[in-house]
């Protein structure tokens, strides 16, 4: 079992607008989050968000000293909170001696101060895939499972505009208290391909997107950048995007798909969005 760590520094839009496609991918796309038997972690300088994927295979995968060293504390959640959603087979998370059994699309919140964290798959042939986000925390809130049936369901969009979708709020003030993390899952209906349209910004918060449930040969064209200077990235299933506060974050797929969105920053108001006039997109 291994842990791999990367660091992504914050990029100003004046820099991104001069980047090649390969450079955009290097700074904003996370390609290999789910590798069997490993914990893949990316520490970002956008609101100090940590994005990680844990894929236990045939044993226990523990959060070790590598991540504690990364954030400069004795253990990862000494001054942080953590949220995750399982996008693989059934699995479990063992946190300070408590075992949390997670089915596909179940979520988990671990509060500040949780010390020992480990991951296991119920069946190594169908491993769990835990998509993890962690951000700094100012106090401790209780850890708990968020079943997919506990999440707040919202019907959004319209088939006529190819963006009919269901949005599920997992880490949200109406579901449970957190310090700053917001996290949820959106699934597009068959025949719809556009997510988060019309586009918006929220300069007070960064966002990360994990795309999944895409067929092998399918992809999403993810739009990023300032509304007047958009750029794009091709994203495959199981890959994640880092979205700076100055960037729009929307896209269209070659088929229906799902994505997990997460945010950290100044507030927890899901509706705190600066809408973009579609006529201004360039």
UniProtKB/TrEMBL annotation:
EC main group: isomerase
Pathway annotation: Glycan metabolism; pectin degradation; 2-dehydro-3-deoxy-D-gluconate from pectin: step 4/5
Pfam families: KduI
InterPro entries according to UniProt: KduI, KduI/IolB_isomerase, KduI_N, RmlC-like_jellyroll, RmlC_Cupin_sf
GO molecular function (one): 4-deoxy-L-threo-5-hexosulose-uronate ketol-isomerase activity
Cofactor(s) needed by this chain: Zn(2+)
Gene3D superfamilies noted in UniProt: Jelly Rolls, pectin degrading enzyme 5-keto 4- deoxyuronate isomerase, domain 1
Catalytic activities: 5-dehydro-4-deoxy-D-glucuronate = 3-deoxy-D-glycero-2,5-hexodiulosonate
Domain of life: Bacteria
Keywords: Isomerase, Metal-binding, Zinc
Residues that hold Zn(2+) according to the record: 200, 202, 207, 249
Enzyme Commission number(s) from the entry: 5.3.1.17
Keyword match Electron transport: no
Record text on cofactor binding: Binds 1 zinc ion per subunit.
Functional note: Catalyzes the isomerization of 5-dehydro-4-deoxy-D-glucuronate to 3-deoxy-D-glycero-2,5-hexodiulosonate.
Family: Belongs to the KduI family.
PANTHER family noted in UniProt: 4-DEOXY-L-THREO-5-HEXOSULOSE-URONATE KETOL-ISOMERASE
Entry protein name: 4-deoxy-L-threo-5-hexosulose-uronate ketol-isomerase
Organism per entry: Rhizobium puerariae
Chain's gene name: kduI
């Amino acid at each position: 079992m291994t842990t791999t760590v990367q660091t992504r520094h914050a990029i100003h839009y004046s820099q991104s607008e001069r980047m090649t496609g390969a450079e955009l991918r290097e700074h904003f796309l996370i390609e290999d989050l789910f590798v069997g038997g490993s914990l893949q972690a990316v520490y970002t300088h956008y609101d100090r968000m940590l994005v990680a994927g844990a894929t236990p295979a045939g044993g226990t995968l523990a959060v070790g000293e590598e991540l504690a060293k990364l954030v400069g504390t004795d253990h990862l959640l000494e001054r942080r909170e953590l949220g995750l959603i399982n996008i693989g087979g059934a699995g479990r998370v063992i946190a300070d001696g408590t075992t949390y059994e997670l089915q596909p699309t179940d979520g988990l919140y671990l509060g500040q101060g949780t010390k020992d964290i480990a991951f296991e798959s119920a069946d190594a042939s169908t491993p769990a895939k835990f998509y993890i986000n962690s951000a700094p925390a100012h106090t401790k809130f209780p850890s708990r499972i968020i079943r997919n049936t506990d999440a707040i369901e919202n019907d959004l969009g319209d088939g006529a505009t190819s963006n009919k979708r269901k949005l599920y709020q997992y880490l949200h003030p109406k579901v449970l208290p957190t310090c700053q993390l917001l996290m949820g899952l959106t699934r597009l209906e068959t025949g719809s391909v556009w997510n988060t349209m019309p586009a918006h910004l929220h300069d007070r918060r960064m966002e990360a997107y994990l795309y999944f449930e895409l067929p092998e040969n399918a992809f999403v064209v993810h739009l990023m950048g300032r509304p007047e200077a958009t750029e794009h990235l091709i994203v495959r299933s199981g890959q994640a995007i880092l979205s700076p506060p100055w960037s729009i974050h929307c896209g269209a797929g070659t088929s229906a798909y799902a994505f997990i969105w997460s945010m950290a920053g100044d507030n927890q108001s899901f509706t705190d969005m600066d809408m973009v006039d579609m006529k201004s997109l360039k």
